[in-house]
Design a protein that fits this description.
The chain has about 90 residues and is α+β, with helices and mostly antiparallel strands. It has a single domain (about 1-85), classed as K homology (KH) domain (GMP Synthetase, Chain A, domain 3, 2-Layer Sandwich). It contains four helices and three strands. The chain has helices spanning about 1-10, 40-45, 50-65, 80-85; strands spanning about 20-25, 30-35, 70-75. The protein has a three-stranded mixed sheet. A hairpin with a 4-residue loop joins strand 1 and strand 2 (about 30-35).
């Protein structure tokens, strides 16, 4: 699941080198996927009205169900870098 998530998100963003996915297994066959992307790519992952992130979650949940697992995809907010704060 981590590899698929990484592939899908890297295909969407402008800065694929800054995409990070952390997979954590919890009890009861649950998996948490924490995704972080560059600050300027957040909008691309969320999409209008959250459509992109919702579609990614649905796709991953369907694939996880086929394997008898449950998955939660969370997009982590990245803080602006010190360079971004100096510009503003």
């Amino acid at each position: 699941m981590k590899a698929l998530t990484l592939f899908l998100i890297k295909s969407i963003v402008d800065n694929p080198d800054e995409v990070k996915v952390k997979e954590e297994a919890t009890e009861f066959n649950y998996f948490n996927l924490d995704v972080s992307v560059a600050q300027n790519d957040m909008g691309k992952i969320i999409g209008k009205g959250g459509k992109i992130i919702k579609a990614l979650r649905i796709l991953l949940r369907l694939l996880a169900l086929r394997k008898g697992k449950k998955i939660n995809l969370q997009l982590l907010e990245s803080l602006p870098s010190p360079q971004d704060q100096q510009m503003g």
